[in-house]
Amino acid sequence: MAADPGDVAAGLLAAACFLLAGVLRAACDAWGARLSFQVARRRLSALRAAAVDALADGSPLDKRRPAAGQAASVLAEQADAAQPYLARYPAIQLKMLVMPLAILAAVAPLSWIAALVLLASAPLIPVFMALVGWRAQRASQAHLAEMGTLNAFLLDRLRGLATLRALDAVDATTGRLAYVAQTLRTRTMAVLRIAFLSSAVLELFSAIGVAMVAVYVGFHLLGTLPFGTWGGPLTLGQGLFVLLLAPSFFEPLRDLSTAWHDRAAGRAALEALRALSSAPSKLVGGAAPFPPASGAPARRPPPAVELVQLRFAHAEAASPVVDGIDLRVAPGERVAIMGPSGSGKSTLLALIAGLVPARSGAVVIDGVALDDHSAPRLRARMAWIGQKPHVFAGTLGANVALGRPDVDARAVGRALEAATLEQLAGREAGRPLGESGTGLSGGECLRLAMARAAAAPGTDLWLADEPTAHLDAATARELTRRLLAQSAGRTLIVATHDPELASRMDRVIDLAAPRAAPADTETVPLAAVGAAS
Ligand SMILES: Nc1ncnc2c1ncn2[C@@H]1O[C@H](COP(=O)(O)OP(=O)(O)OP(=O)(O)O)[C@@H](O)[C@H]1O
């Protein structure tokens, strides 16, 4: 049967309109994709920033902190999986709601049977996808967690490579690494399997739907299936119109299928970011920046430090390590805290610095209780000379200045001298140190921490954790001399096992002394210090 020329013209006109609408839609799609990409990027950046802030706010003493490798993996790698989900999924969801209904509304007035075919094949798809989706998200979560574990494991073992070699544990570690890698492979395959399965099912259903409409329209135009329309038979233009719309009916569902995997991976990545964002134990006052210094450093007396019934237990510890300590350190006083290893000296210093919040009691500095509100201001007055200072890859000078613009080369030189590092600085001038202080001895690392403190002239409360550890007697004596010189006009609290350093302080607090005694009687006579250690 020859087609009517009028029908051909109408069909061509419909096809031209269809083409034009397609071009218009492609332009809108491109514009929308760009817009939603930018919105998603902004949202992801905000989530990443929140996770980084939470990591910075977290107490360094909390052993539940996420492992460094895992945190790096989530922030740098896994978080990217949320981008396609955030960018595409909301738009696809909207398209899912509007487009199939609009197409049904356009097809139904022409042919109720074509509309019925589309309607019958569509609902099965979301039901199946929902079923697959739950499994997909679980699989993606397990996959991302495994990826974080592998990264954390690798970083940890790479840091301790020398120890593993020394203890002949390389083979055991290789075996463990192979096991973790194998688990990751299994999890990756599980995610891929679900992704392939979901798109295969969707393709099948949509192909069947489109094929059925095509068969119906074809046979209808040939006159073999004359039913299914409201009045007379479909014209060629109407038939083409229905035929061209059928794939578009399934298009949002197809988009949904590609986005389904993104959705599972994206939700798992967002979950991982959220987990990073919830630090279980925080620094007092978080990592809020110090208030800006107004003009020249204020001439003020150094602060008094008062501990009032201070109590603290480490996370998951059975008993408190600091249990009701009362102590008063006068302005400008130099105090040594002594006690056996594990008696809580470092923890006490960390509590004074607000690196971890006390369970009860108070730390009062210069008459101000250390709390979230006062911490940034009070911390600006403190210098911390820790037991395990982090040394960054870079020169000795860069490690002292740490990018602080007010610490120039002369200030760095003076600080290195104050920490008895001038000779090393002369030898190593301009040469970079390795990662984590490779190239420095243990004692030199500690002295570097002291140089950092000396390069912060605004600080008038110094907290030093075993500054003479790892040093030979002569260097320890010289460092003690320079520490005392540097601490003039400052309040200094030192945790130490070094009787010589302790003997140069104004007072010694012995944490091993009987707890029932009032604070000031915890002070032991200087002559007894040697015995106390
Ligand atoms: N981050 C932590 N999480 C859990 N427990 C910890 C943590 N840090 C220290 N501890 C435990 O708290 C106790 C006190 O530790 P702390 O480091 O304060 O002792 P210390 O007197 O400074 O010891 P040392 O003289 O050996 O340096 C120890 O039993 C230690 O195992």
TrEMBL record:
GO terms for biological process: cysteine transport. One of its GO terms (molecular function) is ABC-type transporter activity. Residues 1-265 form the ABC transmembrane type-1 domain. Coiled coil: none annotated. The chain crosses the membrane at residues 101-134, 194-218. Residues 305-531 form the ABC transporter domain. PROSITE patterns: ABC_TM1F, ABC_TRANSPORTER_2. One of its GO terms (cellular component) is plasma membrane. It is found in: Cell membrane. CDD domains: ABC_6TM_AarD_CydD (cd18584). This is ATP-binding cassette subfamily C protein CydD. It comes from Pigmentiphaga kullae.
